[in-house]
UniProtKB/TrEMBL annotation:
Keywords recorded for this protein, A-Z: Amino-acid transport, ATP-binding, Cell membrane, Membrane, Nucleotide-binding, Transport
Matches recorded under Gene3D superfamilies: P-loop containing nucleotide triphosphate hydrolases
Catalysed reactions, as listed in the record: a polar amino acid(out) + ATP + H2O = a polar amino acid(in) + ADP + phosphate + H(+)
Membrane topology, as annotated: Peripheral membrane protein
Localisation: Cell membrane
Protein name: ABC-type polar-amino-acid transporter
UniProt entry tagged with the keyword Nucleotide-binding: yes
Entry-linked Pfam families: ABC_tran
Amino acid sequence: MTEVSVAKEDVAATGDLVVLKSVNKHFGALHVLQDIDLTIARGEVVVVIGPSGSGKSTLCRTINRLETIDSGTITIDGKPLPEEGKALARLRADVGMVFQSFNLFAHKTVLENVTLGQIKVRKADKSKAEEKARALLDRVGVAAQADKYPAQLSGGQQQRVAIARALAMDPKVMLFDEPTSALDPEMINEVLEVMQQLARDGMTMIVVTHEMGFARSAANRVVFMADGRIVEEAVPDQFFSNPRSDRAKDFLSKIL
Ligand code: ADP
Ligand code: MG
């Protein structure tokens, strides 16, 4: 508990990085995000949990503008999200996203997957981009796979490449949307370990996951969503041992 409160003071001192205010989003008649207020401090790790269909993926997708919002505001580092063009490409680089399905470029090698954005969006030169890519692939434990194509890698390796590809853009924040749910069980830990290390290194992270062990050990805060709303927020210890809302109690009784 002491460790958590110390970390919280540290992040508070350096300011808020992602701020959502009164965000609303509809898909036709479905009110998928309802008055979402959420502030993520620099260096904070927030785990988002909740039943299927509660709006977790949509929330992630609005933060890097893969989805537009109907009302409210979203700012990253104090700036509203750009609507289009190069500024939007830079925003997508600032907000790294890792999806359930690895989404690597199938016709590019692992190394090319990690250099492409650096060269196109960050305007890095090729040799610098390759040097950085190799260092990142080493950091996530797949350096030996650099010249292979995604299909030649296991799911766990592909997901670690996807993390390296996002990190290569020097993101301000990383979004993970159920990054381990498409993996065979024996590959889940190798991906969670990379994410744990990233959290320890001070990366600001928003992680949608059903991995409660990860939430307990890596999160500064758990956000529980249901039916398009944030129903409850708490430090992990408190959320898991003493959830306040009936919705959270019910959800936890089904998954724990
Ligand atoms: P979660 O990630 O929590 O499972 P989602 O954000 O994926 O929830 O979805 C929330 C709700 O919005 C679901 O009912 C889903 O069917 C609906 N939804 C998601 N994306 C779309 C879309 N592009 N068009 C219409 N409905 C959508
Ligand atoms: Mg989802």
